[in-house]
Design goal:
Elements: H1 2-29, H2 34-42, E1 56-57, E2 60-61, H3 69-78, H4 85-97, H5 111-146, H6 151-165, H7 168-179, H8 203-241, H9 244-251, H10 256-274, H11 276-294, H12 300-310, H13 313-341, H14 347-350
Length: about 350
């Protein structure tokens, strides 16, 4: 197992390198880079809009016309664009090898400090959404498997299908309209993770305020993973219940509860566990991006979105590196968890 873990850890390096190379090549072809963004801001055109897009004519961008060429060169030098793409790539890879993600172009801070500052919000959303999803979906999936074909299974499946078809951001907007807009049910806040007077509250008041702000964004995140995990749990249990060892256990006189939780649960949970790394990646990163934007939560997802719009490349590549590394590590942890639940699984043997 040690050799398998070492191989997987070593494979992370070329995987990260390949992803960075592909995205670096895509970024070079994208119009409206940081130099054009800075020039557009100097001219009052606004970053991220049409004025920041580059239209090359005779080697000169429209956004830079009318500005001192020396100023343009100074801006290029400030952002490192006085060097060739190959030089910039080599310098970036050297920094990343030292876990130095550089300085943000427009935020005036190190990318590492920005990520550490925004990380608690993203982790908070991901942790509670994942916890609630598993606490609800696994018991519900087991109950649906035990009562397969019943009325409970039918109407709960209908709700699950609706939940699966409803995107999390659309459900978030629905929650805002019903529970937080200008409606009569103005129960929850729609901005931030805590109130403005959070520091003046008591410990109990801080906890209540924190969870009060989490209700809508976490609820919107749960709806997406809830449907998938429930059906996965149900199908895993149905598959295991039909196996011969379950028939044998019942023939020995074991109660249905002993059969279900003493034998079926351990084997069925292997499939559920297999989806945990992907669920974590989806909730923590892909799912949280739109939710953070909609609810004005100052997390990594919102920061990476704003950085992409503003062409703040150090922040874009820094968050991409963290997202990819976390995803690869989550998958490795998921494989190791397999061996804890079922010692018969030996990935090192399978590799040969």
């Amino acid at each position: 197992m040690t050799a398998y873990i070492l191989r997987r850890l070593l494979l992370i390096i070329p995987t990260l390198l390949a992803i960075l190379l592909v995205n670096f090549a895509i970024v070079q072809a994208a119009p409206g880079g940081p130099v054009e963004q800075a020039v557009a801001r100097l001219q009052g055109l606004g970053g991220g809009g049409a004025g920041a897009r580059v239209e090359v004519a005779a080697g000169e961008s429209r956004a830079s016309r009318g500005l001192d060429p020396q100023l343009i060169e100074t801006i290029k030098r400030q952002y490192g664009f006085d060097k060739s793409p190959a030089e910039r790539l080599w310098l970036m890879l050297g920094q990343y090898a030292r876990l130095d993600f550089g300085q943000s172009f427009f935020r005036g801070a190190k990318v590492t400090d920005l990520i550490l500052d925004k990380l608690p919000v993203t982790l908070s959303l991901g942790f509670w959404a994942t916890l609630i999803t598993y606490l609800v979906s696994i018991p519900l999936g087991i109950r649906k498997a035990v009562r397969h074909g019943s009325r409970f299974d039918a109407w709960s499946s209908a709700l699950i299908v609706v939940g699966y078809a409803l995107p999390s951001f659309l459900f978030a907007l629905l929650l805002i309209v019903v529970f937080a807009g200008d409606t009569s049910l103005n129960w929850f806040p729609v901005r931030g993770l805590v109130s403005d007077d959070f520091e003046q509250l008591s410990l109990l008041g801080k906890l209540a305020d924190y969870f009060w702000h989490l209700v809508l964004p976490v609820g919107a995140l749960v709806i997406g993973g809830f449907a998938t995990l429930t059906l996965l749990t149900k199908n895993a249990f149905l598959d295991e219940i039909a196996r011969q060892y379950v028939v044998t256990a019942r023939a020995k006189g074991l109660s249905e509860r002993q059969v279900l939780y003493g034998h079926v649960l351990r084997n069925a949970m292997l499939l559920v566990l297999a989806g945990l790394p992907q669920a974590l990646i989806t909730v923590f990163f892909a799912g949280s991006l739109l939710i953070e934007v909609i609810f004005s939560l100052d997390g990594i997802g919102r920061m990476s979105y704003e950085a992409a719009v503003a062409r703040d490349y150090p922040v874009v590549f820094g968050t991409l590196f963290i997202f990819t590394l976390a995803g690869l590590l989550f998958r490795l942890i998921g494989d190791l968890a397999f061996t804890v639940l079922d010692p018969r699984i030996d990935f090192e043997t399978r590799a040969h």
